[in-house]
Give the backbone structure.
Amino acid sequence: MRLLVVSQYFWPEDFRVNDFVVGMRERGHEVTVLTGLPNYPDGEVFPAFRADPDAFARFGDVEVLRVPLIPRGRGAVRLMLNYLSFALTGTLLGAWKLRGRRFDAIFVFQGSPVTSALPALLFRRTKRAPVLMWILDLWPESLSAVGAVRSSRVLGAVGRIVRFIYRRCDRILVQSRAFWPSVVRDGGDAERIRYFPNWVEPVFQAGLEDVETAPETRPFAGTFNVMFAGNVGEAQDMPAVLDAAEAVRDLDAVRWLIVGEGRAMDLLRAEIARRDLADRVHLLGRHPVDRMPAFFAGADALLVSLRPEPIFALTVPGKVQSYMVTGRPVLGMIDGEGARVISESGGGLTAPAGDGAALGAAVRRLVGMSPQERRAMGDRGRAFALREFDRDALFDQFVIWAEETIARPA
């Protein structure tokens, strides 16, 4: 199969689409990637890319075609320009870069923004290839939830774009079963929808038994460490996490370790100082995904959090699978599907989104358990992740769906 992958984000940015491409190549398929200039999450084009763009023209043996875009920068206006610029250059310059090439199928990695799928719809027509779009983020709900857009008129316009895109895809893949009603509402055809959750990435598959602890975590070897890893944005609700840190301030052994960066880091630093939590909450910076097992090895529990918004209750953050398979207990300050997965697995404890006091109570429960009880909890989560989110099984299923769609396009 000749597969074109359209994604605004790609290596050296850290997204699951990178591993998806690797998985398709492992299965012998020919893959080409159309993407933008790497600028996530800092909002500026990566210095290494600026210095030598040719070094990023191939991902292993996969050709990577890049179109210019306006970097994310900071602020809502720059972010919207970033979104719109890829839709425009991906469609116009992407068509030029792909001229004369044929593909059997087109895969769209659709986090934010949904407009990143627009180039694929042109290629669907010009290449006569079906489009399979993987939805990780529901629009326009996400725009409203994070406060990026407040105008009902703009949100209505985005909703019309969403319906335009969904109804022109041959297959729609959703990362959460809870997405189904919204996609049916806007896409109009449940028969085209399939459940395709985030999978366990290879870097985490083996667990932590033989992993050496990251040097950055060794100063906390004698404490009970609650670790958050990933993007630090508005959606992650760090003020509520600090509420939990304040709620267990009396537990001298508890430390909160934040591994990552993001648009809300300045606010987080200011809040740590204002609340006098510098001795309890430690910022360890952003590190490559291949180092994450070493950081997780220094944790006693792994934290995932989202703001109390209806849209976030529908999603399962990708870090849930990565956390669970490590065999560490998972703490979730989330609602809906994410909380259901953690609870159903028996691999952790949950608190309502935005409820720092309840998260603090969950931390107290974990601290009060014996090491054997926490180990058993982590083992249950790992077994569940390996069973429900197996990478090879999900990739093989994708290939079946793609081949079916090639044979019988919608």
